[in-house]
Design brief:
With 260 residues, the protein is α+β, with helices and mostly antiparallel strands. It has 2 domains: 80 residues, OB fold (Dihydrolipoamide Acetyltransferase, E2P); 115 residues, de novo design (two linked rop proteins), CATH 1.20.1440. The chain has 7 helices and 8 strands. The strands form 2 sheets. It has a 5-stranded mixed barrel. It is elongated. Bound molecules: zinc ion. Zinc ion binds next to loops. The site of zinc ion (ZN) has 8 residues, from loops.
């Protein structure tokens, strides 16, 4: 059976198919992650020209079949191309990481309005911001964990609820328990088998990120290179710990080679 459906979607993966077509992976509002073919999309005069590029937000008419996971795009309107993301290497890197994470972590055809809204807001913020763009990505990672039921807690001991974040010395090491999703106070820290240790200063920054509703609220927090590296690794390792399917991002490897 085939139904004709309309949805907004982000293009999160594009590949050539045959002489002139494209197969795209979309993160759509109504169906979550969905794969579709756009026949003839690479011909210069195609109705899909300039429409199905990476990061673009589009409105689609799809012939959606119940018997296959590859559907047919019959029409496409470009809502927003996000040119400024593609033109800036740093923004391009984090936007690629964002969509690669969604691609690897999310199952096909499971609608998730919260995740679609988060992606839309995050891409919009990537587009308009010029400095500290990493903060937006970290905010995205934290909210992504929350949507999937793995909220981060950066304030209170995950076992006894004692506040740990109010201590003074920011270089103090705090044990974080990934399985409980929170730090442990000095009395409780021995319960964790493989402790993950993090500086109190980092925990305080992460707490500001977690309590911000929108990434733009924390855009002025300036992080040095060491803290940026630590925070990204910490947030990503936590998601990998909880969500199967997430692997080391290819984008991470490619950009590491570029920088080295
Ligand atoms: Zn405790």
């Amino acid at each position: 059976m085939t139904e004709i459906v309309k949805t907004e979607a982000f293009v999160i993966k594009v590949r050539k198919y045959g002489e002139s077509s494209k197969i795209v992976c979309l993160y759509s509002e109504k169906f979550g992650k969905i794969n579709a073919i756009a026949k003839g999309a690479r011909k210069p005069k195609s109705k899909f020209a300039n429409c199905l590029d990476l990061f673009s937000l589009v409105s689609l008419i799809i012939y959606k079949k119940t018997t296959t996971h590859l559907h047919l795009i019959s029409d496409c309107d470009l809502i927003k191309p996000y040119y400024r993301i593609a033109e800036n290497l740093k923004k391009y890197e984090i936007a690629l990481k964002t969509i690669e994470l969604i691609y690897s972590a999310v199952h096909d055809e499971e609608e998730n309005q919260q995740l679609f809204n988060l992606l839309k807001k995050t891409m919009q913020n990537y587009e308009v911001v010029s400095n500290n763009v990493n903060n937006l990505y970290f905010h995205f990672l934290i909210k992504f964990g929350e949507i999937f039921g793995y909220a981060y807690n950066f304030q209170k001991c995950a076992k006894c609820n004692k506040v740990v974040i109010d201590q003074e010395i920011s270089t103090q090491k705090i044990v974080y328990d990934f399985s409980r999703g929170g730090p442990l106070c000095s009395k409780c820290e021995s319960i964790v088998f493989q402790p993950r240790v993090v500086d109190l200063g980092i925990l305080k920054i992460l707490n500001k990120f977690e309590t911000a509703v929108d990434g733009l609220e924390i855009i002025n927090i300036k992080l040095n290179a060491v803290d940026t590296f630590e925070i990204e690794k910490f947030l990503f390792d936590y998601l990998r710990f909880h969500i199967s399917g997430i692997k080391e991002l290819k984008t991470q490897k490619i950009f590491k080679k570029i920088k080295d």
